[in-house]
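Homework help thread (please don't just give me the answer)

Our assignment gives two proteins as sequence + structure token strings and asks us to describe the second one. The first is just a warm-up. Here they are:
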Amino acid sequence: MSDHPSPAHATSPVLTTESISDSLLDALDEQQLDELARRISTRRFARVEVQLLAALRADSAALHRDGLTDHPEPVTHITFSTHDNDYDPVCWDLNAVTRHESGAKTPVDYSGTDVEGVLRDYSSFTSPVAGSRLVVDLSTGQFTVRGAWEPA
């Protein structure tokens, strides 16, 4: 183990000290601020996507292990539709459909699970359009958004 702190640990006090971080940000021009904001958003989105995939894989493994699905085969894909009401922005719904290796499907409600909070964060980054579907391939980790007009 090194005696030197990692770069993240070395800079965290700087980033939490408002006067220092504000003076650093004030020194940046508009283009540099835009680039910094883009990079931060890109990294944050990547982390949320990794967290969501991990939560879905863990939950699907537990459902399969505990026999809580309608079919004995492992889950390979999960499809979320959108939730829309008059008060909240469109987001990915907590009620989803899992697809098993055999092609069979099982409805799943992710309310109260680890998936719930991460899916909310994911919705804020993806800004889904009403009627869209999000398909997560648990094998490859690929996230695909399909419009309402595209086949399932």
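The one we have to describe:
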Amino acid sequence: MLGFVPPLPQQPGRPPSSGHMIVCGDDALARRLAVELRFIYGERVTLLLPPGRDANNPETPLTQRGRAAALFGRMSAAMNRAGNGSGTTGGNGTTGGSGDTNAGVEAVRIMEAPEPSDDVLEEAGIDRAAALALVYDDDERNIRAALTARRLNPRLRLVIRLYNRKLGQHLEELLDQAAAVAMPGIDPALLDASTTVLSDADTAAPALAATALTGSSKIIQAEGLLLRAAERPPPRPGEHADPGLCTLALLSSTTNDPAGAEGSDSSGDEAPQLLPDERAVADATGRGTVVLEAISRADPARPATRMGGRGAPLAQIFSRRLRWSALGFALAAVALVIASLLTTEDTALHSAYLTVLDLLGMNDPAEGASPARQIIQILSGIAGLLLLPLLIAAVLEAFGTLRTASSLRRPPRGLGGHVVLLGLGKIGTRVLVRLRELDIPVVVVEEDPEARGIPLARSLHVPTVIGDVTQEGVLEAAKIYRARALLALTSIDTTNLEAALYARSVKPDLRVALRLYDDEFATAVYRTLRTAHPQALTRSRSVSHLAAPSFAVAMMGRQILGAVPVERKVMLFAALEVAGHPQLEGHTVEQAFRAGAWRVLAIDATPPADRNPDLAALPPFDPEGDTAPPPSGLVWDLHPGYVLRAQDRVVIAATRRGLAELLRRQRSAVPGR
């Protein structure tokens, strides 16, 4: 499936030149990031991998070096094919072809070492490198390597992968302080970009959660505002699709083929078209679209909610059968009180009092009373006999509920319309939080009872099934036949595929989203599932493919606002200073737009001295106070004739290659780089 892999030239005795970038990692993200930097940004890259075979996939015949070489070979072949095609001309007169423009850049240098020690980093040229990415799956290893790298080269730009958010904030401050001490008088803007802590789980989780929801929006946050990129299905004959504020992408799905092709960068004409111009949108009638739907103010983040509410309601303590029995007993008692009231001349309060005494067997026999009173007492005594087992059952169930309060909750009877989530690793845990923030009912399936996300599932009262998803009966226990979607997010592609096939055999119209690494494998899986189940929706995503652009942009000294998956392609949203970008500076908004590369969405009208350096952060304000939140300085209703000035800051939507071109040209224009 990988095809021919050309050998990679090695330079073991040749030290890397200055200004190169180093990527250290042990999984797919490291390989994807190296590809992104080499083939998209045209950077010189040194890739440091652990020796031997992949520890997570010991049965794989390829070593880490072999897997990286295979990926580089396929990417190089794809770039050569694309380079032989004709380019397109953008709105400002430049060529926007998708070929490899990095012909003069040397091949990726691959090194193998068990740990990024001092000697290994020095051999990789840490003292002359421009940036270092530490993307090991182990947070502790990344922290140790970051401290070592900052000591060896205080001017180095660090990009660190950490799952622990709070620890990442503290580490970023610590490393920035170390850089400030080593470089007195450093520009605050450069210091802010000297250390960046990212999480691939946080980057990919919103997109993965959205794939499980029909018609859901992808949300990007900018200065307290929410940009909603909504996927619109192909319009029916005679209908006209709502264009929204602007069209961001044309999907491969059409009116005649609603499922589409789930295209990727290597799909050719079947791939979705990102950032089309007006003519392309007008000619694409009957195609699905991704549009910028709405812009609204972001509320403070709320925590994920528990399933079933807070506290311990009766529904969680007592079973439904016991609750119905208690209701029947209460109705019988009320009927006896009414009968006593109608057959005697007692007051309602006294009739109720006597009935309760009869039920509890505490009243004297009704000797000498009327026959009606005697019959009511006999019926009350019989009903009272039923009260004792009812009370015993209630006590036992309450004790059992309290005893198992710390255990995992089982899927309740009658549950339906939920999402079945497979895997509670780093990615699955973040996706679970996202789904619960949206109040989506979830049932989790996890093989390892000690998995990372099990405590979270317990605290959120999320129903959990412990078992191997490939075994018969596990998905049935998760009520897959009544689920709305399946999210298969384990780290093993074949396990995700097997679960999807079995789930489709149980429910053919189930919506399925798979975590798949390889684009070719994902295309083959999609086409097969679409042929077998044409009425069901199938989506596949690669976590490393979604996260790699964020890490690559951070290594260039920038941060993106968000990444939106468009089938198996990625669209990026970023904030850029117009100064230093000849493609933007001095051009109107209409002239600056380049189809298939970038589009200006908004301008920050805030004076440069008062700007928030991080547009992705919420502006500080007290939501419970009397003061309203500060107004956003972003202007979204742009006139096409507005001329972009050097002091402007803009929010753009861009493709990976388009954003790389903007950053690469600015980097080459900066002296001393």
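TA reply:
I won't write it for you, but here's a hint about the kind of observation we're looking for: The first strand starts at residue 21 and ends at 25.
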